[in-house]
């Protein structure tokens, strides 16, 4: 998987369409969750994309401290349903963590869907509080110290 890192202004229309299409397919349709995916925060994010040739396989969006949470954060972690089971989720998260390390950031906070607890703990994240509902889906705050 080839990893590409972009700011919002670096997207061309086709790339942005592929990202929004993937996020909608998983977070709205697959998870049957009506929520505002295009939340006005993409413009401040760094976008980390995983490609095989020209096909988008995996994606995260990364925020520097203060742009979303007090700490840096990773969100919208998604792998194309057709490409799951091939470790692309771990690869895109490791690329996102490496980006944070390269920026010399001390930690990363995420709002993780609870069913993915093992996925995130295997990457070094630690749960930091009570579970809560976000858009009707159980979540938990998790932190990774870098």
Describe this structure in words.
- The protein has 146 residues and is α+β, with helices and mostly antiparallel strands.
- The chain has a single domain, classed as Gcn5-related N-acetyltransferase (GNAT) (Aminopeptidase, 3-Layer(aba) Sandwich).
- It contains three helices and seven strands, in the order βαβββαβαββ.
- The chain has a seven-stranded mixed sheet with strand order 1-2-3-4-5-7-6, sandwiched between helices.
- A hairpin with a 2-residue loop joins strand 6 and strand 7 (137-145).
- The protein is globular.
What's the CATH topology name?
A: Aminopeptidase
Distance from N terminus to C terminus (CA atoms, Å) equals 24 Å
Main beta sheet: 7 strands, mixed
The largest sheet has its strands arranged as: 1-2-3-4-5-7-6
Number of helices: 3
Contiguous low-pLDDT stretches (5 residues minimum) are none
Give the helices and strands as they follow along the chain: EHEEEHEHEE
Total number of beta strands:
7
Q: What's the helix and strand layout?
A:
Blueprint: E1 2-7, H1 13-30, E2 46-52, E3 55-63, E4 72-79, H2 88-102, E5 107-113, H3 117-122, E6 126-134, E7 137-145
Parallel strand pairs: 4-5
Antiparallel strand pairs: 1-2, 2-3, 3-4, 5-7, 6-7
């Amino acid at each position: 998987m080839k990893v590409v890192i972009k700011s919002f202004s670096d997207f061309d229309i086709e790339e942005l369409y592929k990202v929004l299409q993937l996020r909608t397919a998983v977070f709205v349709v697959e998870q049957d969750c009506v929520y505002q995916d295009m939340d006005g925060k993409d413009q401040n994010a760094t976008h980390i994309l995983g490609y095989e040739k020209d096909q988008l396989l995996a994606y995260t969006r990364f925020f520097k401290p203060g742009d979303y949470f007090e700490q840096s954060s990773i969100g919208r972690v998604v792998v194309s349903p057709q490409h799951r089971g091939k470790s692309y989720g771990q690869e895109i998260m490791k690329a996102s963590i490496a980006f944070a390390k390269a920026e010399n950031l001390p930690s990363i906070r995420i709002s993780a869907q609870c069913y993915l607890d093992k996925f995130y703990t295997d990457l070094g994240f630690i749960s930091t509080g009570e579970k809560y509902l976000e858009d009707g889906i159980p979540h938990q705050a998790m932190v990774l110290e870098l």
